[in-house]
Amino acid sequence: MLRLPPFTYLAPRTLEQAVGQIGEAGPEGMLVAGGTDLYPNMKRRQFEPKVLVGLRGIRDLGRISGTPAQGLAIGACATLAQVASHPAVAEGYRALALAAGAVSTPPLRNMGTLGGNLCLDTRCNYYNQTYHWRKSIGFCMKKDGDICLVAPGSPRCWALSSTDAAPAAIALGARVRLVGAGGERVVSAADLYRDDGMRYLSKAPDEILVDVILPPADGWRSTYWKLRRRGSFDFPILGVAVALRSGPGGVIEDARIVLGAVASRPVVATRAAGLVMGQRLTADLIGRVAQAASEPAKPLDNADLTIGYRKRMARVYVERALRELAGLPYDGAPGGAR
Amino acid sequence: MKVALTLRINGEARDVIAPVHKTLLEVLREDLGLTGTKHGCELGECGTCTVLVDGTPVLSCLTLPVEVQDREITTIEGLARGGELHPLQVAFTELGAAQCGYCTPGMLLAAKALLDRNPAPAREDVSAWLAGNLCRCTGYLKILEAVELAAARARGDAPQPTGDGGPPAARVPQRSGGAS
Questions:
Q1: What is d(CA B49, CA B41) in angstroms, rounded to the nearest whole number?
Q2: φ, ψ for residue A54, nearest 5 deg
Q3: Could you tell me the domains of chain A?
Q4: DSSP one-letter code for A236
Q5: ipTM of the predicted structure?
Q6: pTM for the whole thing?
Q7: What is the pLDDT of residue A1?
Q8: Is A47 on the interface with B (CB under 8 A)?
């Protein structure tokens, strides 16, 4: 049986209380919202916090407010099911609705939160295992060991950013509000992440991700495509978020293409997005953009399915996502369906 | 850290004193004797521990009891009413939608939540809704058909079970005591 290690559970009612409690707990404390990422990791002894500060009792953190015309603020404790089915998210920020709706399974999405998915621990075949499994193979540097078992000569950890929401949030130009003892700061969703499998967030451990701020949706259209073995349950082994703003005559005025699950942080394909600026989307152009977007994807042998296939599918999925937004025929389906 | 909790389970208030780090699944099975909720992967990857909290399916293996105080928890033991099986249970029995039975409590509760929201789900709706509940026996088809049959009966679009000569489906079996 996999049981949780012992801890003290605090249930603050206000953000101020939570900031005080997590600050007081220091390195022994962790924040928890839905628990769908943290509790499995605690059962596998990847984390053994002595104090948990539960955020779900803070009413304001669950709120979704605003409109696509003004911009939207989504509280970090809004569940993934709420985000996926919220009319304003679906209308103005479709990539985020598709991404939230593609996380794991229906019951898990009733528990897991948007903030939790954005802060999702990085994943690796050598890390997401029970304590005994990890012990038998000699542990890895992300937990209890000192080398990377995927790339033993590497000085760094290559665990994968496996959040579905982050590529979508970055493509949509989202910012996140972080509140800590030192006050509040707002950073772009892209700047929340670091290229390091171990210290993968720029957020301090005692800062609380409070909400996700989406800019006005005027003229933007977006989508999210997810590759995984099954049509449910699985984490992404590739996520592709694309957002486009078109002007008169279908000329693309702004574009963002973001890949998930190909590195320790979401990868923004800046050069590929640049290729569509000022252009109309044609099948030929889409092919070239997809090729360029897939170049930064350098999968390692630490997730499901083979490296070569995952690399090839980066081009295919960017192409499908762009064809979908261009109104051209495409194979497959957006979101997490198969 | 032990906590004294009052949980509302299947319409009854149940008092329990348990370590705060025991999951709802563990408390239901080990402290309250409600062993109908099954214990599968323990990591949120199989759905067999599904219970309803305020009518919404959640995974009891990843829920702390302290997080669901004052909420209405429904387990499989709360599905039958007054000795009569729930129509979903009748349909599952009639159509052989349970084989080994291990996923069945989670399937039934998830299906109940679906039919409470959507009395006439299409096949794709049922399939998408149950996509968090693994079954390793049936191939799912009989489960999907059973949910559709129960929904059709509730709408009056399918004949009610006759109860004569069919499987002993329409009565709750007497509990013989002991955990299963």
A1: 9
A2: -85, 130
A3: 60-119+160-214 (3.30.465.10), 220-326 (3.30.390.50)
A4: P
A5: 0.95
A6: 0.95
A7: 87
A8: no
For residue A145, with 0-12 CB atoms within 10 Å meaning exposed, 13-18 middle and 19 or more buried, which class applies?
Answer: middle
Contact indicator for A163, A117 with CB cutoff of 8 Å? yes
- A85, pLDDT greater than 70: yes
Q: Is the model's pLDDT at B178 over the cut of 50?
A: no
Paired tokens of A87: 């009319």
The answer to whether A114 touches A165, Cβ cutoff 8 Å, is: yes
Rounded Cα distance between A269 and B34, Å, is 52
CA quadruple B60, B64, B67, B69: dihedral positive or negative? Answer: positive
Q: Is B87 within 8 Å of B97 (Cβ atoms)?
A: no
At residue A337 the predicted structure's pLDDT band, cuts being 50, 70 and 90, is confident
Would you identify the CATH topology of the domain B87-155? DNA polymerase; domain 1 (1.10.150)
Q: Tell me whether residues B21 and A4 touch, CB distance under 8 A.
A: yes
Interface test with B, best of A108, A121, A128 (most B CBs within 10 A): A108
Amino acid type, B69: Q
Q: State the DSSP string of A8-23.
A: EEE--SSHHHHHHHHH
Chain B residues whose beta carbon lies within 8 Å of the beta carbon of residue A44: 43
Domains in chain B: boundaries: 2-77, 87-155
In sequence order, what are the beta bridge partners of A187? A176
Of B21, B57, B67, the CB nearest to A107: B57
Chains A & B: contacts with CB separation below 8 Å: 89
pLDDT tens digits along A107-141: 999 999 999 999 999 999 999 999 999 999 999 99
pLDDT of residue B163: 67
The CATH T-level fold of domain B2-77 is Ubiquitin-like (UB roll) (3.10.20)
Ramachandran angles phi, psi of A25, nearest 5°: -70, -25
Contacts 24+ apart (CB under 8 A), A335-338: A335/A98, A335/A99, A335/A101, A335/A102, A335/A224, A335/A225, A335/A226, A336/A98, A336/A101, A336/A102, A336/A103, A336/A164, A336/A226, A336/A228, A336/A231, A336/A232, A337/A231, A338/A230, A338/A231
pLDDT tens digit sequence for B29-79: 999 999 999 999 999 999 999 999 999 999 999 999 999 999 999 999 999
Residues of B in contact with A36 (CB under 8 A): 44, 59, 62
Q: What is the dihedral of CA A320, A322, A327, A330, to 10 degrees?
A: -10
Average pLDDT of the residues in A310-324: 97
Count the alpha carbons within 13 Å of A125 in the hemisphere toward its beta carbon: 12
Inform me whether the C-beta atom of residue A104 falls under 8 Å from chain B C-beta atoms: yes
Distance CA B11, CA B5 (A): 16
Q: Judge: B67–A8 Cβ closer than 8 Å, yes or no.
A: no
